[in-house]
Amino acid sequence: MRPHILLSLLLCLFVVLGCDKESSDGSEGSGASAMTGMASEMTEATEATEATEAEDDGDGDDEETAEAHEEDEHGDDEHGDEHGDDEHEEGGIDSLGVLGNNLPSNSRGVSHILVRWQGVERAPSSVTRSKEEAEARTNEALARAREDWSAAVTEFCEDDATNTHDGELGDLEQGILPGPMDEALFSMEVGDLSGPIETDVGYHILKRIR
Fold it and tell me: What is the CA radius of gyration of the chain?
């Protein structure tokens, strides 16, 4: 029970006891009656105040519940937006072909072995073999590559830029390589070999690696 209600009840009890004790005195009885009425009014006022407070508490609870519900919905929306942003960001990375080993659909990973002959474009002066000899050497390199690609690169490849990197040219989009090499590469499956392929710089053997 709340303290102000208990105080009102004690006051009423005190007034009633006072009325019984002083019933022989008319004026004092009238004063007691007045006190009893005042106590009753105080009790009624206290009860009204308590009812008002209860209504206020109920309204506050409803407002807190509504605010909590709005916060939950707002949090769900933010989570959904973040998830969508993550998907969008991942999709953007994948479409550029820079996530892991993913490549654009028109790109291929390729390695090669290059064999030159005398007089071909960019051939150093140390190359003295004929074109026919270069072709024969390229076929020899192809046979070796079917057994051990890395060993064939080390033994036969004359491209100083790639022969220490397993002959790898990288991931190339269609149209970058010279025509015959480009056509061969984009008709190959991963792991396939192709050659000899003649270009302006010599004979090539290709291996699709991705």
Answer: 49
